[in-house]
Design goal:
The complex is a heterodimer of chains A (about 170) and B (about 280). In chain A, strands 1-2-3-4-5 form a 5-stranded mixed beta sheet. Chain A is globular, with a radius of gyration of 18 Å. Chain A is built from 3 helices and 5 strands. In chain A, about 35% of the residues are buried. In chain A, about 35% of the residues lie in helices and about 40% in strands. By secondary structure, chain A is an alpha+beta fold. Chain B has about 280 residues and is mainly β. The longest helix of chain B has 16 residues. Chain B has 3 domains: about 90 residues, Immunoglobulins (Immunoglobulin-like), CATH 2.60.40; about 100 residues, Immunoglobulin-like, CATH 2.60.40; about 80 residues, Sandwich (Immunoglobulin-like). About 5% of the residues of chain B have low confidence. Classes of the chains: A alpha+beta (about 170), B mainly beta (about 280). At the A-B interface, helix 3, strand 2, strand 3, strand 4 and strand 5 of A face strand 4, strand 6, strand 7, strand 10 and strand 13 of B.
Chain lengths: ~170, ~280
């Protein structure tokens, strides 16, 4: 009886892990390292739980973005992106499909500095220093590779039950 | 000498194969490139992926619609087995739109730093305008005071805290930059009652207690429906009656108990006390 209960519990845990895991993250690749510095956040301090949520969701967002751009599959954006960021990447995927090309981001890590955390706690803006390898693919073959350290200004907002990326804009 | 000539020929050949790219562009601008020879051009950037065949001596024009999103773009030219890449940056256009968050939607009057406004400044293509831009915040209510402050954006965001005014009503909260302007309404409501006073009158075997018109400390009538509690304490114990404010006053009927003490309260505010009749 006890053994049956243990097996049942294990099955439930595997099921929850599979379903919930898929809801947040499609990609199978390991999440790139994301570090966050909230010391300069204004006008509100970032709570520990929010820091953890941002790190987790932003890492997942990059995984979903990389896979969406590599596979030219815009539906992979839905889990992590809303608003302007979603539209921008969806358009990029449409154009990639039309041109018969794809982009692969080999993500090597992100350092986030929080710039703004809204007083009511529903929007968080940051600057990300991302280390990336960008590959241009045609017919599945890499035709060009670029090593980059790119800065982004990002805005994440609470949408539904979690934080999602609303703006992800490369800056100089 | 021969080596120098070979070096110059090589350098000129390589230079001839380069794309003549401008420096930074502004979002939405067309881009015309001189073709470096026969080959293929791949242009990728935020929201963009373009592939064009290149012909020697012909210009290539990339329409502004492909360059609407601010960010770093890559132009990759493939000529046979040779692949060369070039980077250029597309900067946001001028500020043309504001996304304005105003909180809360209802606020009591005379509350310090209770109203917050956050403005995100965008260009016409929904790029966040990251260069500093002034945003003017104005908060006003008809017949009341006005708050105005100009804040310069940092990375596209400007925010402000403001105290609510002394007069209740729909306050207009406006954020503007250039020709873009967005209005939100913050309903300023009366604060806690101030100087709560009641009077009592015998009516048969009962007492009718009624407050004076109830106002907050700025003179705004508290909204109908506000709960006022009448308390009667005497030798038989203590009883309370909750009454709602109706047309500015609250009213209740209590049993006439000689020697009892009547008091009134609303929220954290206590009013006057009345001792009824003789007794102890």
């Amino acid at each position: 009886m006890k053994q049956r209960l243990l097996i049942l519990a294990a099955v439930i845990l595997v099921f929850i892990g599979t379903v919930v895991g898929k809801a947040v993250l499609y990609a199978a690749d390991p999440v790139a390292s994301v570090t966050l510095n909230a010391a300069n956040a204004q006008p509100r301090q970032v709570e520990d739980l929010t820091e953890k949520a941002i790190v987790r969701e932003y890492g997942a967002a990059w995984q979903n973005l990389s896979r969406a751009l590599k596979e030219n599959n815009a539906s992979l954006l839905d889990q992590s992106f809303v608003g302007a960021a979603h539209q921008t990447f969806r358009k990029q995927i449409e154009e990639q499909k039309a041109a018969g090309i794809a982009t692969n981001y080999v993500d090597k890590g992100h350092k986030l500095d929080v710039l703004f955390y809204s007083p009511e706690g529903s929007a968080l803006q940051f600057r990300d220093t991302a280390t990336l390898e960008v590959q241009l693919l045609e017919n599945g073959k890499v035709i060009h590779t670029e090593q980059l350290q790119q800065q982004y200004v990002g805005l994440m907002t609470v949408y539904g039950d979690r934080w999602r990326v609303r703006i992800l804009q490369p800056v100089k | 000498m021969r080596a120098l000539i070979l070096f110059l020929v090589f350098t000129l050949t390589v230079a001839a194969q380069d794309l003549s790219l401008p420096g930074d562009l502004t979002a939405g601008s067309d881009l015309t490139l001189k073709s470096p020879g026969d080959g293929t051009l791949y242009l990728t950037g935020p929201g963009t992926a373009v592939k064009r065949e290149l012909k020697s001596g012909e210009d290539v024009t990339i329409a502004g619609e492909h360059l609407r999103h601010s960010g770093m773009y890559f132009a990759v030219v493939k000529q046979g087995s040779s692949v060369r890449s070039h980077k250029f940056f597309v900067a946001p256009a001028a500020a043309a739109d504001i996304s304005f968050l105003a909180r809360p939607s209802r606020v009591p009057v005379s509350a310090p730093d209770a109203i917050r406004g956050t403005a995100f400044v965008f260009d016409q293509y929904a790029n966040l305008v990251t260069v500093p831009a002034p945003v003017k915040f104005e908060l006003s209510v008809q017949g009341g005071g006005q708050f105005s402050q100009t804040v310069t954006t940092r990375d596209g965001v400007a925010w402000v805290k403001a105290s609510s005014g002394r007069t209740q009503g729909a306050a207009q909260f406006v954020a503007s930059t250039g020709t873009a302007s967005v209005r939100r309404v913050v309903q300023q409501t009366a604060a806690e009652p101030c100087n709560l006073r009641m009077r009592v009158q015998a009516q048969g075997k009962d007492l009718v207690v009624e407050t004076d018109p109830i106002r907050d400390c700025s003179g705004n009538p508290v909204p109908d429906g506000t709960i006022v509690t009448f308390i009667q304490s005497g030798r038989n114990g203590r009883s309370t009656v909750d009454a709602r404010v109706k047309r500015g006053v609250a009213k209740a009927t209590l049993p006439s108990v000689p020697g009892s003490t009547l008091s009134v309260a609303s929220g954290v505010v206590l009013g006057n006390e009345i001792r009824w009749g003789g007794g102890l």
